[in-house]
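BUG: 3D viewer hangs when loading the predicted structure for this chain

Environment: internal workstation, default settings.
Expected: structure renders.
Actual: progress bar stalls at 90%.

Input used:
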Amino acid sequence: MSGEPTPVIRPNTLPYADRVIIVGSDAPFGWLAAGWRDFRRAGLVSFLYGLLIAATGLALTVGLYLADLAYLIAPLVAGFMLVGPALTVGLYAISRDLEAGRRASLGRALAAWRKNSGRFLGMGLLLVAFLIVWLRFAALIFAVSFPYKPPELSHLLTSLLFTVDGLTFLGIGTVVGAGMATIVFSVSVVSLPMLLDRDVDILQAIVTSVVCVMMNARVMAVWAALIVLFTAAGLLTAYVGLAVTLPLIGHASWHAYRALIRPAG
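Structure tokens produced before the viewer hung:
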């Protein structure tokens, strides 16, 4: 049943609050339904886009394993949540094309960032910076959790799940990672589609995104949880499922942006 959430802070005290629409509590499920429709309409284009991202993630994971850096695989998978938003810009472009009555194009999707390349580069570097900080934290936490002798590669999973040191690493890593993911979600959930859709600078887009999350706190918490759920489902299938779940979330995120931000002008 739909309800109207109460803003955490009075809207008139926040910058760019006049751009934000307060949505009902069931809105995220409508965004998912719209995203699924776009995925089906785009067909092979969306699937190939998701498959490309999935293949890249799998290649990075295999590379870490072959380089004897397997302890960084779990942080890398978690770190996908941090850079994931930047990878879905092409999916926003596909949804925008479908919205305008144009056929989906993989070429236009892959080149979507060119329209506002400098600002997209800035946002991308910001998200990569979060990823680097997270991986450094993960390496530090791993060193503290296993101070004497790191587990052998063949026993890494057992050591992580069934020892005090391993559970300490996972526990601290989960808390730190969740905090960073919350920040990234807040600054990117609206800013990235806005940079594709409008001629705004990075600061305006980020502030609008954060204000939108604050004004729709409960709804956005549900939306963040759904993003994590679908992304995790894709990752747990050795990245294969991302070929479907990533496009679904990307298309749905475009519809979230349309529902949350008033049209320009």
